[in-house]
User: Which sequence fits this backbone?
């Protein structure tokens, strides 16, 4: 009977250890994903700051936000309930450098000494922060209900006034943008004429092909009285050609 009880106890401990190891592995995986996303974002800022676009920054922030939310869900899941029963206590401190700790923390923590433990295992704020919190708490406790209500109402009135001013300005800017007329930089009629001129040649001056008249035609044209009465209207070379045609024709 005692052996069966011991066997059941060992089996339960092994199952609990396996559950704990699985939970720790999941936590480590989530933390590594967050660390990789942060490293990628820092690399963008350091090496791609000249060409870094705002959508890329938003994508990096969205990735970090989703991974942190996933990590929070993991901490609140049923599989992490066993970790809440464990207490992490620094049993042994060593001022010398710990190579394994330095590797696990990527060089952030080189030794688990008296200087590191208060910062990394702190469960309460620092003394200065505690004093400031205590001062604010004491000051709030000395206020009467009427004074606190007046201050709250005054703060609400200021916030509502600011919100109203911001909304009014937003509406004014939207109205100005909607009524603002953008000057036209082109004429639709001129654009249509240009397209018609390029496509079909509409509106262009028709250039007739240069034709050289024959000698007989030039001779007949030379017999017209308007050309013979006004020889200055003919090009000098044309006059020579006309005279040649007149002399070379047989007499009727």
Assistant:
């Amino acid at each position: 009977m005692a052996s069966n009880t011991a066997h059941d106890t060992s089996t339960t401990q092994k199952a609990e250890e396996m559950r704990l190891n699985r939970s720790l592995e999941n936590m480590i995986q989530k933390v590594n994903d967050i660390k990789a996303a942060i490293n990628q974002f820092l690399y963008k800022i350091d090496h791609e700051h000249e060409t870094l676009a705002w959508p890329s920054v938003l994508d990096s922030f969205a990735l970090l936000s989703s991974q942190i939310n996933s990590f929070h869900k993991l901490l609140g899941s049923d599989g992490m309930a066993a970790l809440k029963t464990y207490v992490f206590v620094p049993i042994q401190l060593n001022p010398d450098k710990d190579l394994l700790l330095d590797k696990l923390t990527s060089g952030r923590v080189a030794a688990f000494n008296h200087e590191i433990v208060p910062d990394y295992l702190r469960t309460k704020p620092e003394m200065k922060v505690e004093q400031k919190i205590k001062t604010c708490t004491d000051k709030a406790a000395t206020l009467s209900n009427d004074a606190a209500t007046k201050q709250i109402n005054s703060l609400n009135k200021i916030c509502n006034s600011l919100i109203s001013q911001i909304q009014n300005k937003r509406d004014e800017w939207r109205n100005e943008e909607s009524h603002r007329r953008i000057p036209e930089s082109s004429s639709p009629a001129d654009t249509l004429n240009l397209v018609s001129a390029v496509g079909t040649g509409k509106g262009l001056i028709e250039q007739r092909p240069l034709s050289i008249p024959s000698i007989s035609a030039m001779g007949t044209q030379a017999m017209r009285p308007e050309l013979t009465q006004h020889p200055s209207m003919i090009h000098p070379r044309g006059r020579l050609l006309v005279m040649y045609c007149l002399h070379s024709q047989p007499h009727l």
About this structure: The first helix runs from residue 2 to 47.
